[in-house]
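Agenda item 2: histidyl-adenosine monophosphate complex prediction
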Amino acid sequence: MGKPVYQKVRGMHDILPDASHRWEAVEAAYREVVGLYNYREIRNPLLEDTGLFQRSIGDDTDIVGKEMYSFTDAGGDELTLRPEGTAGVVRAYVEHSIAAVEAVTKCYYIGPMFRRERPQKGRYRQFHQAGAEIFGAPPPVVDAEQVVMLAEFLDRIGLGGAVVLFNHLGSGETRRRYRQLLSEHYGARRSELCTDCVRRLETNPLRLLDCKVESCAKMKGDAPKMREILDGADLSLLERFRSLLHAAGVEAREDDRLVRGLDYYTGIVYEVEVEAERGSVVVAGGGRYDDLVAGLGGSETPAAGFAIGLERVLDCLPESPPASVDLFVLVPSPEAEATAASLLLEARRAGLRADLDPRAGSMKAQMKRANKLGSAYVLILGQKELEAGTVAVKDMREGGQVDVDVAAAVKHVLERLGR
Ligand code: HAM
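Presented output:
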């Protein structure tokens, strides 16, 4: 083993070949579930103009203020590696005038996001999200449907029993009032606030509820609750949302002070928790952002979405071994090479995962490799078999070995595997 000259960037991870099957399975389940809800994939660039994120996520958020990977490129453009998916999706929605051709647009994405956070379990600097967004639909039916879709996905991959914590950030005047109330509550104890929060008093009082500094976090306990000032229309939306989730069997609890870490939210917001060995883990978050499309130059368009953290989901799932090989061909001599190659081609065309040992070592070494790969069947092309036009088929699970015509060998294995 040599010594590596470079190592991966802190907080970023390689997904190695012996682990990627877990990712593929989770991603396939996601595609399948969102497909059932008629969502179609959108693939955006990883790089966007820095201004896009400042404007949509908000200058005063931790993401924009502290966590973005931003740089000026050789042409002088200010670019940022996307810290989340929504802003880019909305940018594309407006740029391509999608509203003009699709009154209601549903799209999903899976891909890496970048935030320069302090790395720890469940918090990485490059992580992956599976998200979904809907444009052109008012609350609360689609909001509830998105949460149910999310829960269906979690259930399908073995994380049933997710709990949804939700809140309503109020619309227009109510939100302004709530900001005012928060400002007064925290402002009364200004001297105990961290410097960021002193600024937030003026710029963005909702963010006060998000501060992790102990002295500020303590003030959250008796902070005013949104529910106390929500108007009748918002309260009834919230009630309909709750009952739609209830009808679908999704456990949902109101969390009065849930504000989320991004500024674009306008109405119903939520986070989704699952129980893991090490306690409950927030695996997803989302909500409504009815002002963002217009904020980025489009027309007034109601919109809502969520994103799931795939590392967090995978951290909650048990390890599983990669798929084993169905058929392995032992090639004892160069004379058997051509027959082996055509058997392998036939097997692969028939849908079998098939392999050989490319190092062409001893029979014993090749058999060891077949065992290591967990091959269900091994085809042995010895001298005797070659001359007779047959191949020895060894059943590695049940034991036993039979000679079969070369032409019938793959069919034989397929039958034994029940395919
Ligand atoms: P978010 O809550 O910032 O929302 O991220 C969504 C999920 O991404 C989190 O619940 C978490 O599972 C995962 N996540 C976030 N940061 C990290 C990290 N540093 N390491 C590992 N996982 C992480 C959004 O990003 C919104 N764009 C969601 C949305 C879509 N809202 C509307 N549409």
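Discussion summary: The chain is about 40% helix and 20% strand.
Owner for follow-up: CH.
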